[in-house]
Amino acid sequence: MAAAIETISKGPKITRHAWKDLGTHYKKVKEVHLRQLFADDPKRGVRMTAEALGLFLDYSKNRITTETVNLLLKLAEESRLRERIDAMFSGEKINITEKRAVLHTALRAPRGASIVVDGENVVPKVHAVLDRMADFANRVRSGEWKGHTGKRIRNVVNVGIGGSDLGPVMAYEALRHYADGTMTFRFVSNIDGTDFAETVRDFDPSETLFIISSKTFTTLETMTNAQTARAWSLAGLQGDEKSVAKHFVAVSTNTSEVAKFGIDTANMFEFWDWVGGRYSMSCAIGLSTMVAIGPDNFYSMLSGLHRMDEHFRTTPFEKNLPVLMGLLGVWYSDFFGAQTVAVLPYEQYLKRFPAYLQQLTMESNGKHMTLDGKRVAHDTGPIYWGEPGTNGQHSFYQLIHQGTRLIPCDFIAFSKPLNPLGRHHDMLIANVCAQTESLAFGKTSEQVTAEGIPEWLVPHRVFEGNRPSNTIFAERLTPEALGKLVALYEHSVFTQGVIWNIDSFDQWGVELGKALAQRIIPEIESKGEPKLAHDSSTNNLITYYRKSREIA
Ligand code: F6P
C-alpha cells in the first residue's frame, strides 16, 4: 500500500515526491466510481486512449483521473526511467546482481546497427546466428535435412524449461496459423516422465528432431529429458551413435556442455549471457518457432519486437504504451493493494500467452530487495494469470465481477480473425466490449429492481462495477503483431522494475529449491537407508515416499 517518501540511492539522491503525492491523491479518488468519471467527461473513452504501431490501448476504464496520469508520469520521471531505458538499450550492466548487460533488444536490432558490449559490437554476431538458423530452418522445412535413415523430419521437439520453453511454446501456439502444417511441433519441459512419454508416444524416431534448448545446458529438467530423448532416439535407430548428429541440435550459451552431451557443436546455435532466459524467444531459443513458421515470418516477428523497442525508447511517456501500462500496474499494486492482474486474450491462438507472461512478469518483478540491497517499502510484482476469453467468462469471471478482490484486467483482442467463421468473430468481440462495460459500470440496485427482480434477490443481482480494465486491440494476430505484444509487456515489466527500484533481470529465488533437490535426489535413490538431516516434515516425506514406492 502507499508508502512514505522514499529515496533512490543509486546516482544522486532524489526524493520521489510523486509517490507521496500519489498517496494523497489516492485518498481523494479511491471511492470515485467509473460511472461518475465517465459522466463527468463524455469524451473520456476517446481521450484516454493511445495508439502506436497498430496497437490501440483503451485505458479509460481505469480508476484514474488526468491528475493520476500526470502524477504517475511524474513518478516515472523522478524514478529516472528515461535514463534507465537508455542504460538498458546501450548495454550497461543493469542486471547488477549478475553483473550482466540486459540486451534482448539487440536480438532484434536491424543488421548494420551497433550495440557494444565489453568493447564488441554484438549485432553482427546476432545476425550471424539468425542466418545459420534460417539456413537450418529452410533445410528442415524443405526436407533437405534428412534423418539418419534418409527420411525427412516430420516432428520437431523442443526440450527446454522456463524461458527455454515458455517463449517457444507460446510463439508456436500463437503463430500456428502460419506454421508448416505437414510437420508436428511439440515441447517437453517437465521432469515428470509423463511429459516426455506422451510427447513422443506416436512419433517415429527416424522422423524426429530434438532441439535441446538451455541457456546454461546444466538445468536438471532439460538435461534429464535430453538424455531420455537421446536414449529413445538411439533405441529407434539401431543404437547408431552417428544418428545423434542428424536428430539433435542444441541452443545454448555453453559450448563445452553441449559438446560433453555429445551434440556436434557445428549443430549448436549460440546466444549470450546478456540474454535473460525469459527474454530469449527472439534469439536462437526461437529456433523451433523459426522452423515452424519459416524465416520470413520469424523476421517479421523480430521486426514487431524491434518496432516496439523503438517506440518504448523514443516516445514521450504520455503516449508510450509500455510506460502507460507499467504505471497503471504500479497504481493498482501499490495504492489500491491489488494482488493480481488477469490477462484475458480474446484469441484462441494466444492460449499460452498468460503462462508465458507469468514467467516474464513474476520471475522479473517478484523481488523484495531494492537495487541497493534494502527491503522494498511497498509491494512489487503482482500475480499474473488468465485464460482465453470467452472460456474464462464461464469460469472465474464471477469472482472478478462480484468477488471481494480488485482484479485489474488486460483484455486483448483483434479486429480481424484468422479463421473467419460465420458470426463467430463479431460475437467474440461483442463479449470483450460487454465484459469491460459490465466490469466498469455494473448494474445498480435501482436498475435491478426496475427489471422486476424480487427485493430479496436484488442484492445478489447487483453488480458494483468500478472494476478496472485495459483493452488492447490490434488488427490481426500476425508474427509482427505478436512481436509488438511481447515487447509491450517486456517493457511494461521493465518500467515497473524501475519504479520499484529492483533488479528485474535476476532470479535468485529459484536457486534454493534447485539446490535442495540436488541434495534430496541421492537420498531418495540411495540403496541403503539414508541419514536424513532435514526438518521432521521433509524427513518424513522422503521416508514415506521411499516406503510407499517399495510397496507399490
Ligand atoms: O527457473 C530459472 C531459470 O533460470 C529461468 O530463468 C530459465 O528461463 C530457466 O531456468 C531455464 O534455464 P536454462 O535455459 O539455462 O535451462
Give the helix/strand class: alpha/beta
Strand order of the largest sheet: 3-4-15-14-12-13
**What value does the average pLDDT take?**
96
Largest sheet, in brief, is: 6 strands, mixed
Round the Cα radius of gyration to an integer and report it: 25 Å
Strand residue content? 5-15%
Oligomer: single chain
Low-confidence stretches: 1-14
| Coarse morphology | globular
Helical fraction: 40-55%
Give a brief rundown of this model:
Helices cover 46% and strands 11% of the residues.
Task: Describe the structure in your own words.
By secondary structure, this protein is α/β, with parallel strands linked by helices. Helices cover 46% and strands 11% of the residues. It is built from 22 helices and 15 strands. The protein has helices spanning 17-29, 34-40, 44-47, 66-78, 81-89, 123-142, 166-174, 193-200, 220-236, 244-247, 255-261, 287-293, 295-314, 321-335, 353-365, 397-402, 424-441, 445-450, 458-461, 479-500, 511-525, 536-551, and strands at residues 7-8, 14-15, 49-52, 55-58, 116-117, 120-121, 155-159, 184-188, 208-213, 248-252, 268-270, 340-345, 383-385, 409-414, 469-474. The strands form 4 sheets. A 6-stranded mixed beta sheet has the order 3-4-15-14-12-13, sandwiched between helices. It has a 5-stranded parallel beta sheet with strand order 8-7-9-10-11, with helices on both faces. A two-stranded antiparallel ribbon has the order 1-2. A hairpin with a 2-residue loop joins β3 and β4. α4 packs across α14 (321-335). The radius of gyration is 25 Å and the shape is globular. The relative contact order is 0.13. Bound molecules: 6-O-phosphono-beta-D-fructofuranose (F6P). 6-O-phosphono-beta-D-fructofuranose (F6P) binds at residues 161-164, 214-216, 219, 222, 277-278, 363, 507, 510.
